[in-house]
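Supplementary notes (optional reading)

For those who missed the lab, this is the record we used. Protein: Amino acid ABC transporter permease. Length: 345 residues.
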Amino acid sequence: MTDRAEADKRPFYDSEPIEAIRLKHPGRIILAAVLVIIVGLFLFDAFTTRGGPKGYNWPEVAKYVFDVRVIQAVGYTLLLTVYSMIIAIVLGVLLAVMRLSPNPVVKAVAWVYLWLFRGTPVYVQLVFWGLVGTIYQQITIGSFSLNVQDLLPAFALAVIGLALNESAYMAEIVRAGLLSVDKGQDEAATALGLGWWHTMTRVVLPQAMRVIIPPTGNEVISMLKTTSLVVAVPFSLELYTRTRDISAVTYKPIPMLIVASIWYLAVTSILMVGQYYLERHFARGIGQRPDVMKPTVETAAVGVITAEEAKLAAIRNSETHPTYTENDGRTGIVPPEGGRGEGWR
């Protein structure tokens, strides 16, 4: 009983932790075991029974995975992705601001742009950009004439087609991020005398990035894979088309598809790691709770005292502290030096 009484007197923050018993989930264990067996059987079959020339042909994969032509194709794929996303992000921010503009004409222009580029397939748009040279063969300004096919090579047309399509999706992502910031932030920045540019760059956008970064990272990864469609322009130096051309010579399409998949997975994995750190950087301070502070004074349950105990407590207080009697007969404690009106010092 003594140990229990002492335990009851302990503060709540010094009490022993609760011993929670973890629930058992046999169904999960069985499902995990089945999945591991299926994956193991697939890998064993892929690397043994079907790993020869009539199957996945892993020696051919190892032969071409670091081939010079494949490495160059990876470089072109990365250039297409980076250039297209940079242009798409800039246009997306501009279109998002236009969509939020109070000017009905500006808002309508942005809406029509989004309707057009989001409503048609990206492959159709790339084919159209590939045929621009047949529609506009020359651009003449006074005595100055430009040949469109010389001015816009296939690589530039591929970047334009990918960027314009992606900017329509980036506009909605940026607009959602801007709308997620409380309007009071904008009003507070205006009250502090900040202009529109400083309000947007220093107050609104830093808070909106927490919402913008995750879908933007997904769009970058999606753009990397969408570059395989630029053959519609036609541009044939990116990764998928280059490996397909090699397989047309070797008559071994499956190993070259595996080579392209390996490089896509490698680049995508690097992008996912970068996206994770960006999300963690812009999510600092969100959803975090401060540590519980321990009380400075020991707390305990408040008991109920009787009238006699209250009188005894009053007598003890009167013996400890000098008292005085008011004109109406009430008794009060004499305040410290400085008088009753000046309080404690």
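If you only remember one thing from this example: The mean pLDDT is 81.
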